[in-house]
Write a structure and sequence with these properties.
Layout lengths: L1 H31 L12 E6 L2 E4 L4 E4 L2 E5 L5 E2 L12 E6 L2 H4 L9 H8 L3 E5 L7 H11 L6 E9 L9 H7 L10 H6 L2 H11 L3 H11 L1 H11 L6 H19 L5 E6 L15 H12 L4 E2 L25 H17 L1
Parallel strand pairs: 6-7, 6-8, 8-9, 9-10
Antiparallel strand pairs: 1-2, 3-4, 4-5
Helix pairs in contact: 1-8, 3-12, 4-10, 8-9, 10-11
């Protein structure tokens, strides 16, 4: 009996010691790492906001990447105090985008939408970006929103390279109990399709910075995500890329009928800024860009505007392959602002 009790105490003591070590390691990660928590509040999304596309739930405060975000009555991200609907505004710029345009983990005034608001004080800035969107969703927003809002005078579409697939909306579709996601196209999407693994990952990435640091370093997230997105532009996925370009061309045509210009910006991945001369890094922009050019849709590749004298990682969130830091948002705001002024 005494031996059994001693063994029990030993096991309990070992578990307690392990928990203390994990707590200290978590404290260290939170103190010395600039990694951001991931994930989004379930209550931030609503089904069928624009046609059959989900959207941000109007008039809510929610958590995205560990930060409180504020959504207005339209379902658009705004600063904490909101944005007055000033009748003296001379026009409205509508921004279409996914999580890159939404600007997670960056204070709203520091996102490119917020910076454009400061640069063009006489214009309303509607940021219709929604995490998980792809090109069919952008078309749904234009079809549903623009006819009801004649004040829209220009539209900016910030195209993320993973917009050729709807798989990034998988977790949000689960929140909303929507249809099953499309079949996985690569290993990353395959792993996400396993519910138990996905749930465990969602739980840990919203709560533990230690988990994120270990995960990012083991998986080399930025390189892995680049390889995954590059595979979307392989010959085998040519039809998907063509469909994305077709969706953008349809948006451009619909806006042109109303006399509204469309500015398309091809947002880069962090890996692409490491070595701009690497031929492989040119593939996605070249393939989608060629299709847009054939459809008569002008576009902007902002990569030359990123200073090669700085580290590529300075422009993105820590360990993040595509979401901009405040510095990255500054560059994008300058690119978009210049395009708006020169349209």
């Amino acid at each position: 009996m005494k031996r059994g009790r001693a063994e029990l105490l030993l096991v309990a003591g070992s578990l307690l010691f392990l928990l203390v070590l994990l707590a200290l390691a978590e404290l260290g990660a939170r103190t010395f790492s600039n990694v951001d928590l991931l994930g989004n509040s379930k209550e931030m999304f609503v089904a069928d906001a624009f046609g059959n596309s989900f959207g941000n739930k109007p008039d809510v405060e929610a958590i995205s990447f560990g930060q409180t975000v504020f959504i207005d009555a339209h379902g658009f991200r705004v600063p904490k105090a909101g944005v007055p609907d000033d009748a003296s505004k001379t026009g409205t710029i509508l921004i279409l985008g996914d999580s890159v345009g939404f600007g997670p983990a960056v204070d709203e005034p520091e996102t490119f939408a917020g910076r454009l608001r400061a640069r063009f004080p006489t214009q309303r800035i509607y940021n219709a970006s929604v995490i998980g969107y792809s090109t069919p969703d952008y078309k749904n927003v234009v079809d549903a929103f623009v006819p009801q809002h004649p004040e829209v005078s220009a539209v900016v579409l910030v195209y993320c390279l993973n917009d050729v697939t709807a798989s990034t909306s998988q977790n949000i579709d689960r929140y909303l109990e929507k249809n099953q996601p499309p079949p996985p196209a690569n290993l990353t999407e395959t792993l996400r399709s396993f519910r138990l693994l996905s749930d465990a990952n969602d739980y840990l990435r919203t709560r533990s910075k230690l988990y994120l640091v270990i995960r990012h370093r083991l998986l080399r997230t930025q390189t892995r995500d680049w390889r995954a997105v590059l595979s979307l532009y392989s010959d085998d996925r040519a039809a998907d890329v063509a469909q994305s370009a077709s969706n953008i061309a349809a948006i451009s045509a619909a806006l042109a009928q109303r006399g509204i210009p469309l500015i398309v910006v091809l947002s880069p991945f962090e890996y692409q800024l490491r070595d701009p001369a690497d031929p492989e890094t040119q593939i996605p922009q070249r393939r989608i860009g060629d299709l847009l050019a054939k459809a008569g849709v002008p576009y902007i590749d902002p990569r030359p505007s990123f200073d090669s004298g700085l580290r590529s990682t300075d422009y993105f969130l820590a360990y993040d392959s595509m979401h901009f830091s405040a510095e990255g948002h500054r560059v994008m705001a300058d690119v978009i602002g210049d395009a708006l002024e020169n349209r």
